[in-house]
Amino acid sequence: MQITETITKTPGVCGGHACVRNTRIPVWTLVSLRQQGATEQELLNNYPGLNLEDLTAVWGYYYNHKSEIDTVVAEMDN
Questions:
Q1: Residue 61: alpha-carbon gap to chain centroid
Q2: Domain spans of the chain, in order of start
Q3: Staple partner for 54: which of 12, 19, 50, 69, CB 3.0–4.6 Å?
């Protein structure tokens, strides 16, 4: 399911979690890394398939779906 041009959810891919387009990089992973102190530049360096527009879409998705992403981050931390 395409949520935006950048953020998609596909059953069977990454547990059906929201991911960045054409990647298997979940939004929750990027949000978690940012919460741990990673900068946007570090994220772009560590995930060369991403660009600044992708990160902007990730932060926007998180803003609009905070409880969904926070729940997944908490579950993955356990």
A1: 8
A2: 7-77
A3: 50
Kindly give, in sequence order, each residue whose CB lies less than 8 Å from that of residue 14, ignoring residues fewer than 6 positions away.
Answer: 24, 26
Cα dihedral across residues 49, 46, 43, 36: positive or negative? positive
Burial 19-37 (b: 16+ CB within 10 A, else e): bbbeeebbbbbbbbebeee
Is this prediction's pTM over 0.85?
Answer: yes
Domain 7-77 has CATH 1.10.10.10: yes
In this prediction, residue 22 carries a pLDDT of 87
Token pair for residue 23?
């990647």
Alpha carbon distance 4, 75 (integer Å): 25
